[in-house]
Amino acid sequence: MLNYAALYYLLEVSSAQSFTLAAEKLHMTRPALSTAIKNLEKDLGFLLLNRNHDGVTLTRQGEIVVQLAQKGFAFFDEIEHLTRNRPEIPAEISVYSTLALNSSITPALVKNYYEQYPEGKFNAYTIGNASPDEILLNHPDSFVLGIFNETRLFDKQLQMIVLDKSKTYLAMSPDAPFFPAEVKSVSIKELLQVPLIITEVSEEQSFQNDLMSALRKYGEPHIRFTASGMDMSSSLIADSLGATFYPSFKQFQNPNTANYRTISIKNAPKFVLAALYHKDIPQEKLDFFLSLLNQI
User: How far apart are CA 279 and CA 110, in angstroms?
Assistant: First the structure.
């Protein structure tokens, strides 16, 4: 069996072209280094070095061995680098979300996490009535996913990662009489007389709340129904009984636009799909969370 230490010594001798200089670098005595190389030559059955008073040079066979040894040690260095830089399993990942079930983000995060770390622990919570500020100030090692007004201000200790920006659309039945067929966009003021269907469980409750606040600057909106979710809204929309607004994020299953007529709302508040975190979260946990997001 080859002496891999002796191969490494050979690389140093060939680089320095001197037993003396190589021995100094390796913190060995010259005789010990010379003996190790001679034993390697004995094991291989051929000479590796030409020795003379001016130093040493590689034989042809020595050149081949050095080339192969360099490739081999480079391979071992790559393996060691991977081992050294493999992310540790976070003790616990906790994500609070304001997103509804029609968002694929949280399920995708959980799936990616357990595919890599089946013995890990991923906690997924709904945010409930608490604000992102409250959650992250009380749980600074957690994350919050949600849809937020672009102008919303958070506690100065919180940081935001924007995952996507949204346009806001009005969805209605193709037969709905609310706007002529040629109309492709409307102002938010024009929505006042549209019979709206407001969902109690939306992608993010503040999305509906912020839009209603924007509407109320011009008057009282005409709310025909308050539905418990998008499924109920879909039936009401299909029957031309009302319209609803929704954000157009890539990670959401938005209303089936093949069955609805959609109109963009020109001056609606701007929304972002974002992840929030506390600035004091450990960098390794933040990097790991970002790697999970990047896999979606």
Answer: 23
**β-strand partners of 159:** 277
Token pair for residue 89? 């399993």
Is residue 63 scored above 80 in pLDDT? yes
Spatial strand order in the sheet of 168-172: 185-186, 261-265, 168-172, 244-247
Q: Considering the entire predicted model, what is its pTM?
A: 0.61
Distance CA 117, CA 120 (A): 5
Q: Measured between alpha carbons, how far is 273 from 205 in angstroms, rounded to an integer?
A: 13
Residue 245 CA to chain centroid, in angstroms?
28
Half-sphere exposure at residue 160, Cβ-oriented, CA atoms within 13 angstroms: 19
Classify each residue of 197-215 as buried b or exposed e, where b means 16 or more C-beta atoms within 10 Å of its C-beta: bbbeebbbbbbbebbeebb
- Residue 12 above 50 pLDDT? yes
Average pLDDT, the chain: 84
- CA-to-CA distance for 240 and 175, rounded, in angstroms? 6
Q: ∠ at Cα 278 (207, 96), nearest 5°?
A: 50
96 sits in which H/E element: strand 93-97
* 161, 277 Cβ separation under 8 angstroms: yes
In this structure, the number of other CB atoms found within 10 A of the CB of residue 34 comes to 19
State the residue for tokens 């037993």: 19
Contact 188, 218 (CB under 8 A): yes
Three-state SS for 42? helix
Query: What is the model's pLDDT at position 60?
Result: 92
| 261 contacts 170 by C-beta, under 8 angstroms | no
Pairwise CA distance, residues 292 & 296, whole Å: 7
C-alpha distance across the termini of the chain, in Å = 47
Q: Is the dihedral of CA 77, 78, 80, 85 positive or negative?
A: positive
Q: Is 107 helix (H, G, I), strand (E, B) or coil?
A: helix
d(CA 86, CA 70): 24
